Amino acid sequence: MSALKIDITAAWRESAPSAHVPDLLAEENGRLRLLTADLGMKHDYGAVGPVECPIAYDPVRRLAFRYVCAAGFRGRDFSQLRAFSVAREESYPLIDLPLNQWALWMLEWIASAQGHSGQLLGLHAADRPAEDRVVIEHRLFSLELGADQLRLRPICRDAYKPLAFSRRRGEFIFSGAEGIYLVGLKGERRLSLPHGVDVGGEGAAFHPLGAAQVVIGGDGLHLWDLERNLCRRLTRNGRYPVWSPDGQGIWYRESSADVHYYDYAKDATREILALPNQRHPEFWHARPVCLSRDGRYLATSLTEKVLRGVSQKGSATGARERVYAHQHQLLVLDLERKVYWSRSGYASQLCWAE
C-alpha cells in the first residue's frame, strides 16, 4: 500500500494488483530488476552502470536489452551491450565495446517483417581526442543478434539528443543547440522545426497510428504537423509526452510529483494523480510514463520533495542553503479498472515484459 499520500482523480481507488498483469522490468538504484505484478522482486540482474540508457524488449524471445558498464572505480572496467532473459532470468553479453565507446539515451528493438531475428537500433557515442579537448561524436547504430560489430551511420549536424523514434515511419526526432529536427534512418535531416517556436525539447512522441504528427514537451506540449511544418501549443506546461496507443490522448508530466492527461478530441487536460503540498516542484526525477502495449497498464514513479532545514554552513557566497529530502513511490495504474497499487521506490527506466 502507499507510503506517501497520493491525490488521484475521482472514481479511482487503491487496490490489490489486477489479475494477469505482466511482469515489469525496472532500473532501481543502478540495478536492473524483474518485478512481479505487485512490484515485488522476482529477479535481480545486477548493476548496469551510470549511463542513461532505456530498456529495449523483444516480446517474441522475451529478451530485454540495455547498455551496461562498470558502476564504479573498483573492479574491471568494461563497456558492452547486454541481453537479459525474462524466461530464464539470466543475462549475457551481446557485444563488447572499446572503453571509449558507449550507447545512451536511445535503444529500440526492431522486429523483422521477414521472420529474421530483428535488430537493435540506438545512439552510439565515442570520445575522440583533439588537440586541446575531447570531442564526443554521436552516430546511429544497429546490431543484429549474433553479429560481432555495430553498423554505424553518421547523423546530420546539430542532431545531438534523440527524443523519439517511430517504427512505422522510420524517423527520429532529435534536439540540438540550434533546434529540433526530423531525421531519417540514414541520419539525414528531413525537416526542422520552424524558427521562432520555443518548445524546450524535453521528450517527444510520434503519433502511434503513423499520422504525420509529433508532440514535443518542454515549455508545454506542442503539436508539430510534419506535412505542413506547423507547430501549435496544446498545453501551458508539460514534459515527457507519451501518446496513448489509440491516439486519443497524451500522458505527460508537469513535475516529478504528478501525472497529467491531455484529451486530444476535447482539447482538455486533467491531473490524474499527484503528491499533495509540493511547494518546490522539480523535474530532476521526472520520466515518461510506461504504457503496456494495449494501453491498459501504466507504470511510473512519483517523487516528493520536502524541505528539511537549512545548512549550518554557508555557501561560497555566505548564504545558507536549503536542504531537501526526496521520497519516491513506484506505481502501477490499471486504466481499465481505474485502480492503482504502489510501493516505495524509484525507477529511472521501466519496460513491460509482455
Work out the helicity level.
Answer: under 10%
Q: Which residues form runs of ≥5 with pLDDT under 50?
A: none
Q: What's the helix count? A: 0
| Rg from alpha-carbon coordinates | 21 Å
* Whole-number mean pLDDT: 92
- The number of E-state strands comes to 30
Main sheet strand line-up = 1-25-24-23-22
String of helices and strands: EEEEEEEEEEEEEEEEEEEEEEEEEEEEEE
Strand residue percentage: over 45%
Q: Would you tell me the structural class of the helices and strands?
A: mainly beta
The major sheet is characterized as: 5 strands, antiparallel
State the shape. globular
Gap from first CA to last CA = 24 Å
Précis, in short:
This protein has 354 residues and is an all-beta fold. It is globular and about 50 Å long. A hairpin with a 4-residue loop joins strand 11 (119-129) and strand 12 (134-144).
Describe the structure.
- There is one protein chain.
- The model has no long low-confidence stretch (mean pLDDT 92).
- This protein has a 5-stranded antiparallel β-sheet, with no helix packed on it. The chain has a 5-stranded mixed β-sheet with strand order 2-29-28-27-26, with no helix packed on it. Strands 5-4-3-30 form a 4-stranded antiparallel β-sheet, with no helix packed on it.
- A hairpin with a 4-residue loop joins strand 16 (180-184) and strand 17.
- With 354 residues, the protein is mainly β.
- The chain is built from no helices and 30 strands.
- It has a domain at 48-154.
- The radius of gyration is 21 Å and the shape is globular.
